[in-house]
Write a structure and sequence with these properties.
It holds the Pfam family LRAT. About 40% of the residues lie in helices and about 20% in strands. By secondary structure, it is an alpha+beta fold. Strands 5-1-2-3-4-6 form a six-stranded antiparallel sheet.
């Protein structure tokens, strides 16, 4: 990777994102609890609403998971100059930041550093999925209300 690149790490149920700083280091959001593994950032931070920004070795963040450089938003957004990205990133090291899986997650954080705007496809997809499930549930409820229930219960 090159400084300023977005690093996508494949976790079991989600993608974790970091930003490459150079010399083997990345910046990423981690649980506020110092003893908690980086792997659990979304789970722990989801409940606390807080995360800590850390500079760590890429190999520590990745562990045994696979990873790749993924600057996918370069197709629709212009990255800031590398020097600006790195300078902005360094300002956040060791800070506590708010964390929200759908509105302010690890992908939002690193894309904010790279592009000046936080975006997250995985959050957008999750929100879309929740909206679809909600729409199906609402439609089912409406149909039951419209046509009534056909079940017959015995009286004892």
């Amino acid at each position: 990777p090159k400084p300023g690149d977005l690093i996508e790490v494949d976790r079991i149920f989600y993608k974790h994102w970091a930003l490459y700083l150079g010399n083997g280091y990345v910046i990423n959001v981690t649980p506020v609890d110092e003893g908690a593994p980086t792997l659990s950032v979304s789970t722990l931070s989801m409940f606390t609403g807080q995360a800590k920004v850390k500079k760590q070795l890429l190999k520590e963040v990745v562990g045994n998971d696979s990873w790749k450089v993924n600057n996918k938003y370069d197709r629709s957004r212009t990255p800031l100059p590398v020097e600006v990205i790195i300078q902005r990133a360094k300002l956040y090291i060791d800070m506590e930041v708010t964390y929200d899986v759908l509105g302010n997650n690890c992908e939002h954080f690193v894309t904010m550093l790279r592009y000046g705007e936080g975006v997250s496809d995985q959050a957008r997809i999750a929100i879309g999925s929740m909206a679809a499930v909600g729409a199906v549930a609402l439609a089912s409820t409406a149909l039951v209300g419209l046509f009534g229930s056909k079940s017959r219960e015995k009286e004892y």
